[in-house]
Design brief:
This protein is α+β, with helices and mostly antiparallel strands. The chain has helices at 19-30, 69-76, and strands at residues 6-15, 37-50, 53-66. It starts with 5 loop residues before the first strand and ends with a helix.
Length: 77
């Protein structure tokens, strides 16, 4: 196996449906601009409550993607 480096970002997705949907919202949005997503780890879940009612579900994720050689060289310049 070749040596690899992965970058980890923390994201928070929100949904009016569920924590699972909030996680999917975050991953789907991240996949529009990040390539080669590898793993998403749920680190926290909470609720937004207004007037005694649940208004939104929030899921905090740590998402990793492969750090590419070309990107690393361009940033070093």
């Amino acid at each position: 196996m070749a040596e690899s480096v992965y970058k980890v970002l923390e994201l928070i997705g929100t949904s009016t449906k569920s924590w699972e949907d909030a996680a999917m919202v975050a991953v789907n949005r991240a996949s529009r601009t990040l390539r080669d997503l590898r793993v998403a780890e749920v680190v926290e879940q909470d609720l937004v409550i207004e007037g005694g009612k649940v208004e939104a579900f929030r899921t905090k994720l740590k998402v990793s993607f492969k750090y590419e050689e070309e990107v690393a060289r361009k940033k070093a310049r």
